[in-house]
Design a protein that fits this description.
heterodimer; A: alpha/beta; six-stranded mixed sheet; three-stranded antiparallel sheet; 9 helices; about 30% helix; about 25% strand; disordered C terminus; B: mainly alpha; ABC transporter involved in vitamin B12 uptake, BtuC
């Protein structure tokens, strides 16, 4: 496979907050059309890795290429859904305006949104069954509806790659399934998806490749996650259960894999 | 009563100043409230006081002291807030206190200077000059132009800075633009209406508007209108009761805030009562349906 097929290329990426090493010598590549799951324990460096790939943080060592260039220049072609906990839930903004925000990049400073932008916004809201809420304040929606609005905002500009940070942390099981089904559809249409998640249950159903992060990064491009594969890959015995995998899987990654 | 008061030029100027101040504070105050910058805005206003002291001590015009202090302190506070969010409140608190202390000490050390410090705390809106009014018009114009031109970017940065910056919006630059607007408002208003009134008009009308609106533009408009209501009411009370106008305006705004909180509380309890009533109706309907089906059996 040529490097042109790689939408993300990380080479020896290391990052630390002060003396606290969070990501150590991470090397991996993500192909176009992939559905990558980044998993790991709390504080393991998942969100940090995502922010490094997006150029929000600068690596101490190593290099990152996103969409064929430095992330700071190319990230405007990516869609992004941050952790919902970082947002002000009471912010005075309508559903329509939140989604319209996804098109800010297509208009220069000082230019208003066009009628076409508003049509695109209505169209994506309709796809998510949210058109009747378009004039509602975002604070009046449920957690699941808010998350769908953020997904609509990320997708309204038709990005080549979509990054999601814990998109279902405040959503019930049915809402989460709805979101993952939509991501699967978007991925099938050609958009690369990179998902940070705690929800191990979704891996076998949706994800094509997995990166396990706990300072060290272990990349599994085939994404086959039966018990034998997991045990071999993670280097410890695994009990794969219906909802989640015990965290001891990740603690085993504090050292090198066996 | 108001037509009688408007016979006096100083009252006309005061009412007009109140309206103009309300526009600036309503718009910038909305940004202060939604971006959680009230403490920073207070810090800038108090740090600017150090500039007043320096200007008095060096025999400069007040503006030549206030402008560098307000701009410098807002940039420094903004820089520290972005670099280290956890420590930003401490740094702002220190600059707040040091600016104030420096101002008072420098005025104490100024030989033959008898400026009334109270006039800078609560201002002298009744003594606003035509020149100050003109400055306020210019300030309002600059603020409104900035907001109209940069509205969609400012909205994006205020709601979700990380998303905005990934989307190609110059988030850091816009953050400093917001800080500059705060500093600019403080610079222009501190002499006319005093720093306490600036803080009150930055925060109180916008906080009330936030309770009743779900849109940033409307919040700015409602906040400006509320500011106009409070300044006009405060000026009337001040004239009738012969009390300090700035303090009277702050208290009017405070009463408005209390009233808004009561209205919201009543609305919420009425809403809860409707929900409980609906639940009871649903329960009794379900119970009678169950009883009917048991009877049939």
């Amino acid at each position: 496979m040529s490097s042109n097929d790689h939408i993300i290329e990380c080479r020896g990426v290391t990052f630390a907050y002060g003396s606290n090493l969070v990501v150590k010598n991470a090397t991996f590549s993500v192909c176009r059309g992939d559905f990558l799951g980044i998993i790991g324990p709390n504080g393991g460096g998942k969100t940090t890795l995502l922010r490094l790939i997006l150029g929000v943080l600068k690596p101490l060592n190593g290099s990152i290429i996103l969409l064929g260039g430095p992330p700071v220049k190319t990230r405007i072609r990516a869609g992004y859904i941050p952790q919902e906990t970082n947002l002000n839930k009471g912010f005075p903004i309508s559903v329509h305006d939140v989604v319209l925000m996804g098109l800010t990049r297509s208009r220069g400073l000082g230019h208003l949104f066009s009628k076409e932008d508003k049509k695109k916004t209505d169209s994506i809201l309709e796809q998510f069954d949210l058109l009747s809420f378009k004039n509602e304040g975002i604070s009046n929606l449920s957690g699941g509806q808010r998350q769908k609005v953020l997904l609509a905002r990320a997708l309204v500009s038709r990005p080549e790659i979509l990054f999601l940070d814990e998109p279902t942390s405040s959503v019930d099981a049915a809402g989460a399934d709805e979101i993952y089904d939509y991501l699967k559809k978007v991925n099938a249409e050609g958009t690369t998806v990179v998902l940070v998640t705690h929800n191990m249950g979704i891996i076998s159903r949706y994800i094509k490749s997995v990166a396990c992060v706990n300072k060290d990064l272990f990349f599994h491009p085939d994404g086959k996650l039966d018990e034998q594969t997991l045990s071999r890959t993670f280097g410890c015995e695994i009990d794969l259960i219906a909802h989640g995998v015990p965290h001891r899987v990740f603690h085993s990654h504090e050292g090198k894999p066996q | 009563m108001i037509p009688d008061l408007l016979q006096y030029e100083f009252m006309r100027n005061a009412f007009l100043a109140g309206l103009l101040v309300s526009v600036a504070c309503g718009v910038v105050g909305t940004l202060v409230v939604v971006n959680r910058l009230s403490f920073l805005a207070g810090g800038v206003a108090h740090a600017a006081y150090g500039g007043l002291g320096l200007a008095a001590f060096a025999r400069w015009s007040p503006e030549s002291g206030i402008i560098p202090f307000a701009l410098g302190s807002s940039l420094l506070m903004g820089f520290v807030s972005r670099k280290n969010k956890e420590r930003s409140d401490t740094v702002i608190g220190v600059m707040w206190a040091v600016g104030m202390a420096l101002g008072i000490i420098l005025i104490d050390l100024t030989p033959g200077y008898y400026a009334d410090l109270m006039s800078y705390l609560f201002g002298s809106i009744m003594a606003v000059s035509q020149q100050s009014l003109l400055l306020m018009v210019v300030l309002d114009f600059v603020i409104l132009i900035c907001i109209i031109l940069l509205y969609k970017e400012i909205l994006s940065v205020s709601y979700d800075e990380e998303f905005a910056s990934i989307s190609g919006v110059p988030a850091r630059a816009l953050y400093y633009v917001i800080l500059m607007l705060i500093a600019l408002t403080v610079i222009m208003l501190i002499q006319a209406v005093g720093l306490i009134l600036v803080i009150a008009l930055f925060t109180i009308p916008a906080s009330i508007a936030e309770l009743f609106t779900k849109d940033l533009k409307r919040m700015m408009i409602v906040s400006s209108l509320l500011g106009m209501l409070f300044t006009t009411a405060g000026l009337l009370v001040s004239y009738l009761c012969n009390i300090t106008a700035g303090a009277s305006i702050v208290l009017s705004a405070c009463i408005g805030y209390g009233t808004a909180l009561i209205i919201i509380k009543v609305k919420k309890s009425k809403f809860k009562a409707v929900i409980m009533k609906n639940r009871e109706t649903i329960c009794s309907t379900e119970c009678s349906a169950l009883q009917d089906s048991e009877h049939r059996k």
